[in-house]
Amino acid sequence: MFDLGRTLLAAVERRPQAPAITDGAVRFTYHEWFEQTQAVANGLETLGLARGDRLLVVMQNRWQMAALHWACQFAGIIVTPLNWRSKAEEIDYCIADAEAKAVAYDASCAEAMAQCREVGDLPRIVTDDVSADGAQSFSALAAHAPSKLILRSEADDWSLMLYTSGTSGRPKGVPRRHRAERAAALAHVAQNLYRQDECTLGVMPLYHTMGVRSLLAMAVIDGHFVCIPRFDPAATIRAIESAGVTNLYLVPTLYHMLLEHADFSKERVASVTKIGFAGAPMSDGLMQRVAAAFQPELFVNHYGSSEVYTYTIDQQAARKPGSSGRAALNQRIRVVPIGAESPDTSAAVGEEGAIVADMAGDEAFEGYWKRPEADAKSLKDGWFFTGDTGYFDTEGDLFVTGRLDDLIITGGENVSPVDVENALSTHPAVAEVAVAGLEDEQWGKIVTAFIKRREAVDEQTLQEHCLSSGLANFKRPRRYVFVEEIPKSAVGKVLRRELVAERYVVEGATTPS
Fold this sequence. Notes:
By secondary structure, this protein is of the alpha/beta class.
């Protein structure tokens, strides 16, 4: 199998003058992009980085970050991207944990980086808008082309190390090989029916598996990657319109923000023919709105993770809302009883259980970085215990109901937040909804709905709506909280732990509850 350096080189040889990447006014053809990434790879080697070393990168989605990613693939360096919103202590932890040999960053995190203790004497690379004593500017790093082609990697080398979000405890490093990354990119192309000359929006962060997949998939098909440094609905709509973006691959939250923005219109996004989402379930209500607004030829629900990129896909997401479809091209999926230690006992059809994935899949990682206790918890008999819950319906489609940690046990009954959210999301007055379990002396936990309202609506009306939607009585919320915003992570995932900890702003208030 090709490594990723050869993957990009093949695209350069096929279509050297095709647009490869755009970032505002900056635009590179594939030939120009190859020369740029080779120069960056040469600069990294001049700094002393060698095959197998880790380069920590903390940047927004700018062309320089994409160039560093590809340069590492040529040089055999393991790119280790972090959230640009990370605090100094979080960056310090990852520098030490990854044993990074150099760091690269931009203005978005320069303040945090200046406070890091672990940087020490490590080589630092900064974008040209950052002034830092002793650091090398990106333009200086990329000033010299190599004397001959830099192509150091092989398919079995490590390509990158992602860090999980760390919802409990310290984040875990997820190292992934070139062959797994290429297999995931190829599957992404096939499962989303991409063709040559596609244009995608590079707005999902390049420290996240969705962002990386968009970047790599475009190289596989000689496609065009349009950088959006950070998500802004107005800028995103302008980029879709001006670049003629043909496909979108976003978390549901970003679709919601696009549709809600005053600048959105069907005409301005008419070039988009393929819609994909991942990272979190899309509520029934939002799915209906997205389908109506974009009228896509293809609407794909993609279910996966950093560890095993693709679990399942459903290429007709709007046909059966909530369904994550069937196992993907490179994967096998099972649902086992909650609490099971073995992957060999299957839950019954319709029975909610724990979702597990075959570690022999082409896209799978091989274990966490220096975390044997995490491996012992998640890797059992050749299967990855995802931490997600779900069930197979009678037609064999998988429905993901949430995280094991999010499951609400109320009065002895198990309630999935997703079921309740789907019911409430279809009410026209509900802009957004998140459901969590709050401690209760009588019930253990009570189902609580946190609502961002689009227009006035009261609890009684929402209860009646739940009843008419067919939601089981024990699943209906016993409490409603109307909030200004639903707390989310940097990539748009609902932070239920923030709701449980009462860190939110009640509608009409100005300070957190």
